[in-house]
Automatic annotation (TrEMBL):
Keyword match Cell membrane: yes
Domain of life: Archaea
Membrane topology classification: Multi-pass membrane protein
Keywords recorded for this protein, A-Z: Cell membrane, Membrane, Transmembrane, Transmembrane helix, Transport
InterPro entries in the cross-refs: MATE_fam (IPR002528), MdtK-like (IPR048279), Membrane_Transporter-Flippase (IPR052031)
Transmembrane segments: 48-74, 86-112, 124-146, 166-190, 314-334, 340-361, 373-395, 415-439, 451-475, 481-502
Name under which the protein is recorded: Efflux protein, MATE family
Subcellular location: Cell membrane
Organism of this sequence: Natronobacterium gregoryi (strain ATCC 43098 / DSM 3393 / CCM 3738 / CIP 104747 / IAM 13177 / JCM 8860 / NBRC 102187 / NCIMB 2189 / SP2)
Gene Ontology molecular function terms on file: antiporter activity; xenobiotic transmembrane transporter activity
Cellular component annotations (GO), alphabetically ordered: plasma membrane
NCBIfam families in alphabetical order: matE (TIGR00797)
């Protein structure tokens, strides 16, 4: 099937001659029209939904990785749950760099496409891949070496079961950081191009693989709940007798995640290098050029700082909660995984806004870019209100799903009660947090990643962490006081961001350098 470039004309001003240059984007053909969503012409609501929905679904599938791990690890006992809760802030600290730097790929591709400079896209995309590959290799080595020490910083006591298990899980995850970052960059480049359906398909494949192999790599053929549910205990006994395989425990969850992400990364790279996305990356495109690196660092660094500060803040908050003991940390860990479902929805909407705002600002359509933010914010409020209202009455049951086995030193009842209180207190505030994420997506889409970084840092460093510490240590309000502090930080941060958005001070000129004009 033959496709063509999006059908629109645009004009731009040459910065050297100040002449208006008319460009026709229909002069080239591409196999991507069926994937790329045109968001600069026509009605906006449907294209915005079509663009954002696959991102939300893809991010939701990404969260399935962790929920599946959490569920099967829950059958290993509460010590394993506590280990996951300690390990995640450390892993997130490493991954946050990748989350941030790939934003440069989204912005560059979106704005190059919005202004019709298609020939510059392969170089920007290839440079992003090379830069991310080097960065991920360095982070993998550093993360593996520093994991035991980093876990002590978030409150895990050395030589305890949760610390030992957390080291095992985190180290394997760090070893798989390179293919994980490859998939991140594929998603980012696809979003910038306007194709959110292909990443969704790859994420579905990857998640399916993870769901299938997770219980076997964790539990093997010994005491595997899957065989019991299926009424195949005799088969399990036979397989264990033949293989002696009892699973890898918590390490198996990490192996399953790395393997399934690697499959998605390989497929994503194949699509990029085959030109099936809409632009073709060649080996020469991978050469790191100074101008490309400068753009990547300029655009991506503020978001890297933002994400790293956020990850560091999560680690600090985990350490604060650890003052109350491992049960409080386990409750926070489960709650954060559940909240993560809603977070990825808001993040998906925000990333859709990034692409829409980037392309429309590139095409000189400011009013349309703003309207996209309003629509996405409205969708976020409606979705989150329904989800929170539905989950509210079943808080204990939801948390209890992940505590199938009570073995270990951590009290299961305390974990359930703490997690349920989190859902009831923080849940309503997540509606505000969703709007906050959408507005940050608008800031990033305009290229104003520094402002997004400042807002995210404000929420975490000025509101959430200090208030949580004060509630727990000074006011002696217990872990419930921390939950109220988190809720308040979401509300006040969304108000501050909304005020800034309506002032219009977030809009800056195109981040593309003048020599590219």
């Amino acid at each position: 099937m033959i496709h063509v470039w999006p059908l629109y004309q645009y004009t731009m001003v040459d910065e050297t001659t100040k002449d208006v240059v008319s460009q026709d984007s229909t002069t080239q053909s591409s196999p991507s029209q069926g994937r790329s969503v045109d968001v600069v012409d026509g009605r906006l609501f449907k294209p915005l939904v079509v663009l954002s929905a696959p991102i939300v679904l893809a991010e939701g599938l990404d969260m399935v990785y962790f929920l599946v791990d959490l569920y099967w690890i829950g059958h290993l006992g509460t010590d394993a749950i506590a280990a996951m809760s300690y390990a995640w802030p450390v892993i997130y600290l490493g991954m946050s760099v990748g989350f941030g730097i790939v934003t440069a790929g989204t912005v560059l591709v979106a704005q190059y496409k919005g202004t019709g400079r298609f020939r510059a896209i392969p170089s920007a995309a290839g440079g992003t891949i090379s830069f991310v590959t080097i960065l991920s290799a360095v982070l993998a080595i550093a993360g593996y070496a520093l994991t035991p020490w980093l876990l002590t910083l978030v409150g895990a006591l050395p030589e305890t079961a949760p610390h030992t298990l957390a080291v095992q899980y985190a180290r394997i995850t760090f070893l798989g950081l390179v293919p994980t970052f490859w998939f991140f960059v594929f998603n980012a480049l696809s979003r910038g191009w306007g194709d959110t359906r292909t990443p969704l398909k790859l994420m579905a494949v990857s998640t399916t693989i993870n769901v299938v192999i997770d219980p076997f790599l964790i539990h093997g053929f010994s005491a595997n709940p899957l065989f019991e549910w299926a009424g195949l205990s005799a088969l399990e006994t036979s397989l264990y007798a033949q293989t002696g395989f009892a699973g890898y425990g918590i390490e198996g969850a990490a192996v399953a995640t790395v393997l399934s992400r690697s499959v998605a990364a390989a497929l994503g790279l194949y699509i990029l290098f085959s030109g099936r996305l809409g632009f073709e990356i060649t080996p020469s495109s991978l050469r790191l050029r100074r101008s490309t690196v400068t753009q990547i660092v300029k655009i991506g660094s503020p978001t890297v700082v933002e994400m790293t500060v956020r990850a560091g803040g999560v680690a600090v908050l985990t350490a604060i909660i650890a003052i109350e003991g491992a049960a409080a940390v386990a409750a926070y860990g489960i709650s954060e995984y559940l909240v993560g479902i809603l977070f990825v929805i808001s993040l998906g909407l925000a990333r859709g806004v990034e692409a829409v705002v980037g392309q429309n600002l590139g095409a000189g359509q400011l009013a349309r870019a703003k309207r996209a933010v309003y629509l996405s914010g409205g969708i976020a409020v409606a979705l989150f209100t329904c989800i929170v209202a539905g989950a509210y009455p079943f808080a204990e049951s939801i948390v209890g799903v992940f505590l199938a086995v009570e073995g270990g030193d951590v009290a299961a009842d305390a974990v359930v009660q703490g997690g349920a209180a989190f859902i009831r207190v923080v849940g309503p505030a997540l509606i505000f947090f969703a709007v906050f994420q959408v507005i940050l997506g608008a800031f990033r889409g305009s290229g104003n990643t520094k402002l997004a970084m400042m807002m995210a840092s404000l929420e975490l460093l000025v509101f959430r962490i200090p208030l949580s510490y004060a509630a727990l240590v000074w006011l002696e309000a217990g872990v419930t006081g921390v939950w109220y502090s988190i809720a308040f930080s979401y509300v006040i941060a969304s108000v501050v961001a909304a005020v800034w958005f309506f002032r219009g001070a977030w809009i800056i000129p195109s981040v593309l350098s003048k020599q590219d004009q």
